[in-house]
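Why do we care about 3D structure at all? Because function follows from shape, and shape follows, mostly, from sequence. That is the central idea of this module. The next example makes it concrete: a single protein chain, its amino acid sequence, and then its structure expressed as tokens.
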Amino acid sequence: MQTGNRMLPLSEACKELSISLATGQNWVKRGKLVPSAKIGRSLFFSRAYVERFKADIQSGKDASLKSRRNKKYVSGNQMYHSYLPDGSRNRIAIQSLVSVIENRQIEVTDGILCMLVAECAVQLLRDKYGRAKRSQGLLAYLSGKLDLGECSFLVEDIIRPYPLLLGMAGLYPELFGSHYVYEEGEDVLGLLYISLKNMGNRKASGAYYTPAHIVKALCSRLFCRKEAKGWEVQDPCCGTGNFILQLPPGIPAHHVFGNDVDAISVKIARINYALKYGITDAAVIYSHITEGDYLLEEPKRHYDVIIGNPPWGYGFSEAQKKQLREKYTVAAGAGIESYDVFIEQALRQLKPDGILSFVLPEAILHVKSHALIRQRMLDACTFQYIGFLGNAFDGVQCPSLILQAALTGDGSGRRGMVGTVVNDGAQEYTIQTRRKVGPEGISLPMTDEEYAVIRKMDGLPGKATLAGQAAFALGIVTGDNKEWVKKEKSGAAEMVLKGLHLSKFKYKPSDCYLTFRPEAFQQTAPSRYYRAKEKLLYRFICSQLVFAYDDAQVLPLNSCNVLIPEIEGLQVKYILAVLNAGAVQFYYKKKFQSVKILRSHLEEIPIPPAAKETQDKIVGMVDAILGAHGPEAVEKWYGAIEHEVAKLYGLTAEECRLIQHSLEGENRYLPTC
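And the structure:
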């Protein structure tokens, strides 16, 4: 069968719809996704059918993806609030424009988007170069009443693909009421572009535009040295030029370069470059701000500094993946993370002792899939600065950081990160003692004193771990909770738990009910794990370790995972007490920095040995919490457990105070009744 232009196998259809293969199989099972043909056991879908299905999702006609965490096709025009400073007059103007578009339900086509960007550009260039009246904008320019002189080519680049723009502008006079003000260092054009651009396109491209305060923090840290004035600087994924706008005055225009693959972004970046440096020479602007595929083109020059925010999670095509695997060592795995490849390419383009400073997800430091790029950086670079930013991007739950490293060739790995400056959001410190680092992970957001506690816990004599001594199981993935999970019990339905129902040690009764039919669900673990005599349930997405005890064979949904400890000589409730203790929360927080409670991380936690008498004592405290009524009783027994577990780890009073200070103010998720 021909599957090229007309028919797609299920796997390809799922990629087009941005869903997993498991979800696609579930949709076929439920009749939501209907194959056009079946040959043997293989399903095929017409390309036209898939495109219609995709269009329905994008338009909102089909709400299949509305509740999904990855809202890749949620349509609409979004205001990216954190991009400009709070007091920006331009932000108010753009918000008003977005409101007009939403209220009038105007579809923002590429032509309209470019028309509105051009309107803003005309006003900024007019103000910067003192041309004509402030009331004149794009309409005056299109009708020949406003002459931008040598700046005209910058606007023409944007509007040239749309020769009927004047007529289009006449159809939407209500879109020309915004007044923009040129303010130095402010990427108003970028905010306008990303606010109007379809959210689906932005997320699919892996582009998360960096708020101004983060760019300023990166630049102020990087360009504080005298020699910075002689540096040549490149932003290989410059977008609309936000990083370039924040460069200090001492960096001259002819030392600044930017590149991006997005054509409109490049045109905007050229305008921002012209505005910042007062340059109107087209040849200079075109040579310094370029459009191209940074990853596949061969470097033409090398730089003292490479800065920026590379794409996160870009969806490469199979053809692109093949090219990348031939060129990059970090692309050897099944999946290719775009920012890993950007880092490898940037290291190739740096001069000796050149500096890389990127905004990246925290995952770069500890997630297994980034081991290759960690090894590359540890071998080639000296880590100068790590600044932890938390969830810094609007609507994106992904802790991020600023990573600054110099291409020294001696490698931070060989020095154990000594000399690296770390800002964890609450304090800034310099690492003085050697850390254990390697491709398996880099633990940085802890002081030397905190690191010593982690090392002490890891080195505990006789410790056990859950690795190879526990069963793990995911909660039930129904594929459609609205269909399967009910608010009232009926027939054979059973109570089912979500992560939000869990506190430490116990869970509260749920008002959710489910008829257990594993053959009909998208994904389930073997029933024996749900029906175990004893099991621990834990929140999968959480900043804390939250484990609850269950001996009633209750069912969990996918936000509530299952752990069944099988460590010889250690009671389940004893292990429950250890995992819920503050010392272990401190260990987990400092070592893994993850909002997902991953099995690989849980398997590393050191479980202290304990005599039966000690275990019985701690289990009695757990039982007291399970039967407690009121927070006072819970606090009393939890404090007693904390004390006993700290003793088992051999922690001193000073070390306990350090742990308590580190966890101060955090939600402990203790039961309230």
